[in-house]
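Supplementary Data S3. Sequence and structure tokens for construct A.
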Amino acid sequence: MTKRVKGSCTTVLVGKDASIDGSTIIARNEDGNVPLQPQKFVVVNPDEQPRHYQSVLSSFNIDLPDNPLRYTETPNADPKEGVWGAAGINSDNVAMSSTETITTNARILGVDPLDDNGIGEEDMPTLVLPYIHSAREGVQRLGSIIEKYGTYESNGIAFSDNQEVWWFESIGGHHWAAVRIPDDAYVVAPNRMNIDHFDFDSDDTMSATDLQDIIATYHMNPDKEGYNLRHIFGSATIKDTRYNNPRAWYGQKYFNPEFDTTPIDQDLPFICRTDKKISIEDVKWVLSSHYQNTKYDPYGTGSDADKKQMRPIGINRNQELHILQIRNDVPDEIAAIHWLAFGPNTFNAVMPFYANVTDTPASYRDTKPEYEPTKMYWLSCTLAVLGDTNFGLFEDFENLFEQNTVAAARHMQIEADKGYKDAADLHAYLEEVNAKMAQTSFDNSNKLLGQMVALAAPQMKLKFTLND
């Protein structure tokens, strides 16, 4: 088998009453194991969905149903390690983000070892997203597959429809648990087991059929009362205090500055609430953040040791950022928005692409494994690499670029929302709007690149004039 690869992402979930416009939101940075893993944005139409599926990274294979839905996804540009669909929205306006690599412990792995012949991150969207009609169905389908076939890694997965947001975590090789995120709540989830307090009798939880039994049988609960799944199945390591907890801490402090917590706290809450209504821009900011205004900011004024102490959310291994929004203030035909940005998040802008389409813009769709700056993935990476050389010099220009690009896209979306009923072919209409958004993103990114070159040229060390 091909060597297994793991990402290390960050997830943000927002219930419909916690968002600024009543949308449900599931969002994630897809972070690769290396800085450059080219991504593309595609639509998988029903005739393109396989009826028999074979994993690349394991021996798992399965016959799939003959009635798939159409769906968007952001797979790897090079399929040598599998599809890695990552995220998408299907034609029934159900969204899936898969996966967030999470931690576990020796107790559960001794009871239920990981299954080397099971499924992994490369497989999940392909196996689940085309066949579900609600977020709950997504949890149930993925759970049944893991119980029957197993998984070789520990992952967190998000599902949403226009009413509900669910968070699913695999446990050992064949077990799992899921929680419905309250409508008025949000979550910031790093690479550790995140679910804490769990009520097996609630209508807002689901789990493997024997999960409660194995906790009792194998004496796995360290707490005297209740069930805290993070305590039972998760980790609380020194690595968590540097790699995972600080990201949850910083995202939570953004939404709730009053929280009296520290970056190394092992019991940061899973479900959070804030008085502020959360916008798409808020989610993007958190997923782009790098501990601004703290001593841990790699671009800040802290000591070299402080700057390297905590793993930031925005990082050079960001491959794509998706914000999957199902709106409740517009008709179903235009409710699903697959917001997308490629590359490291310090120098990109997230664009609101309509998901009810049969094709995607070429500059986002046709990414090749080799460098090609006419494609958005590679152009975004170019901006990030150059921007990293002197962040302070370019920061203001990046901020204006992002604001102006997203504002232009939002204006196009507002106008498209108004005019869609007059379209003779809705798919063609929305594809044309998406193409205009993609062109705006591409043009503005090139403009920013030119500004950065102009700013950086006088700073080059290889220079000499008669006035020196």
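Construct B, processed identically:
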Amino acid sequence: MDDYDVIVVGASIAGCTAATAYGRAGLRVALVERHRSPQAHKTLCGHFVLGGTHDVLQRLGFWQPMVTRGAAVTTGLGMWTEHGWIVPRPDNGVPPAISLHRSKLDPLLREIAAATPGVDLMLGHRVVGLVQDHAGGVRGVVTANGTAGPTGLRARLVVGADGHHSTVARLAGVPEDHAPNERFLFWTYYEGATMNGPGGGQVWPLGRDVAVCIRVDGGLTQVGVFPAKDRLPEFTDDRQGAFDRFVAGLPDGPSLAGARQTSNLVGTTDYPCIRRDPTPRPGLVLIGDAATSSDPVPAVGCGWAFRSAAWLADATAEPLARGGDLRRAVLGYRRAHRFIDKYDALGRREALARPPGALQRTVRRAAVSDPDIARRLAMFAMRAAPPSALLNPRVVIRAALGSRTAAPRARQPAAPAR
């Protein structure tokens, strides 16, 4: 008899979501986490959860606890273009986004998971091996807990939710598909900043560079920059100065006069784009960053973690509980994961930091004055609809016709001064 029905490795967003959903389905779950402290959290994360995840958070009962802990809810983002702002409409049906620092979010999700009947939260347990059957299927994990000897745990399903450096994937020999990311990123937080653009936050696609400004929890404003890597020397010589100059050059950018910067710059000069098969071997599945670590510019990471975990539980909880065909159920999760795969393919192209193409320019220009295209663009940006909701011939033709008749506007600076 197996020790558990499911073993989930990694107790952050994806792992806690999967463990909670499985526990509520009446399954026995081992939630294995290498950190000993329940307050451990990811630091390199923008913690913005796109609106496409709203339904999952509501269904799992996470939304209200996040709001209670102080999360900021954003109902629409304005996008700057050289033809004017794309202004979000409150009645366009685009679901709201939510933001909560990982120092609050990770402990909250761990708390919810640990309180779920059937879930054993095993802090301080590091996975050092896999239990495999004679056919190469994964049947469990081997963990080490400090000076204690290794412990073997068995289950019908092992879930790798341990990030883009996934130990589970490495031990299983899962191939990795790496793609270049030609941008780097830095962000910080301000108290007392004033937004000058529309919506609960703004996005500036500026040629090869991108910038964002968003309200977050604690009454703070998060300002982030994603420059192309040819600007790295500026930031190497004077990181804070280069950041300040970049933000000061944003058209209709935030007013920081009198604002207090509440953190050091957070970021990295190289963020990986890594993709793995989410269903690589019998008895093993991957969710969250362990399956897909995408370009951070569109802020998809947290949402993909929540959603992939929920899709996995939706597909496999009943077969696990009733002894059904698990292999067929896992294929159902694989089909659901194609939603992420389609967006990741687009994200990998965007991560090359090339100037916007003709299609992007046409759609953005039309969205300034066409509410339907603006709504479709917002649904695309929030990952609340498949890419085809925006990228289809009918919409492209409408955008092209609208762009030709749109009134021209005075050009504004295409990017912050270098």
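The CA atoms of residues 129 and 142 lie 5 Å apart. Residues 407-415 have pLDDT under 50 and may be disordered.
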